[in-house]
Amino acid sequence: MATALRRLAKCSVSARLLSFAGHSRGRRGHFARPCTVVAQRNFSSASTMTVDLDSSTGIAVMKLHSPPVNSLSLDFLTEIAISLEKLEMNKGCRGVVVTSALPKIFSAGLDILEMYGKSPERCGEFWRAVQEMWLKFYSSRLVTVAAINGSSPAGGCLLSMTCDYRIMADNPRYSIGLNETQLGIVAPFWFKDTMVNTVGHRTAEIALQLGLLYSPQDALKIGMVDELVPEEKLVSTATEAMARWFAIPDHARQITKSAMRKPTIDKLLSARETDISNFVSFITKDSIQKSLKLYLENLRKKKA
Ligand code: CO8
Fold first, then answer.
1. Residue 179 appears among annotated catalytic residues
2. What is the CATH number of the domain that holds 42?
3. Cα dihedral angle (119, 8, 159, 304), rounded to 10 degrees?
């Protein structure tokens, strides 16, 4: 995994943004590597996900599979980011549907065990991987659709909000939102910005302070998700939704996406190291460690 992280670190953000901005030179440069467009299966090296690219449609389906709850650990985040990067480099891929292979859970968010009882160095490494996953998805040239087939708190909600479009299973048992304050932690500015960009300032202000988790119906009302469908229709609806986005010339769509998102992306890029040190000093505080311990105990108690 250290190698994987080194690869991530080497990935040039400016090259990515250039390609994302749709400048044909940048794009050609970015995709210069020859690639055969074939249906692929499991091209991620780990067993934490499958990525199937249908070469006839250009749509990849990324299914997260890290039992029990798809919590986003350092390794898993790195796998997700690398898988997206591979799709980005494949000329035959125009869009990706992100969903879960686990029943009832899209993603439980960041792996709390990565933030509890870990050294500052490890926390910093973890946070860089969280940033990288967000940067890759939020700036992707691909059309990204989240097919949310289960609960999606905190980091799971963030992952879905990086996508261009969100479709959620209409099941009142599922919930979605940024519930960080309920854990006694604080969503960093770029989580907050992503939420504001999705649901607007006032709704985000209430939701973030109260750490609200929304039912699918309520998430639809506030615009956190764009569509609700019966669970069995989720991936097929996502594929159909993709057709609307594919009908727009790629360069026009990509430049527009960049215009909408670049200020938010640049804000993190210009404060990346400070954001890491802020995270590390916050999360390693005794009081925060106590809150996380309590939260973990409550999760376990709930089960007993
Ligand atoms: N991280 C690590 N382990 C987790 C997590 C998680 N996020 N969520 C659940 N688990 C563990 C449980 O502890 C349990 O472990 P064990 O089997 O050892 O007891 C196992 O996964 C299964 O969990 P449940 O029995 O609770 O499974 P259910 O199917 O009943 O419920 C839920 C699934 C709804 C996902 C539920 O587990 C849940 O609510 N989890 C907590 C989700 C959460 O609050 N996530 C927030 C993470 S923090 C984050 O993403 C952003 C942090 C930003 C940091 C900013 C700091 C500055």
1. yes
2. 3.90.226.10
3. -40
Residue to substitute in 69, 74, 214 for testing ligand 1 pocket (most ligand atoms within 8 angstroms of CB): 69
- For 146-177, write each residue's pLDDT tens digit: 999 999 999 999 999 999 999 999 999 999 99
Count of domains for the chain: 1
Which range of residues forms the domain containing residue 194? 2-303
Quote the Cα angle for 220-199-210, to 5°: 90
* Whether residue 156 lies in the annotated active site: no
pTM, two decimals, is: 0.88
Q: Give pLDDT tens digits for 120-133.
A: 999 999 999 999 99
Distance (Å) of CA 28 to CA 3, 25, 31, 114: 26, 5, 5, 38
69 CA to middle of ligand 1, Å? 7
- Catalytic residue chosen out of the listed positions 110, 158, 212, 234: 110
Q: Is the CB of 130 under 6 A from ligand 1?
A: no
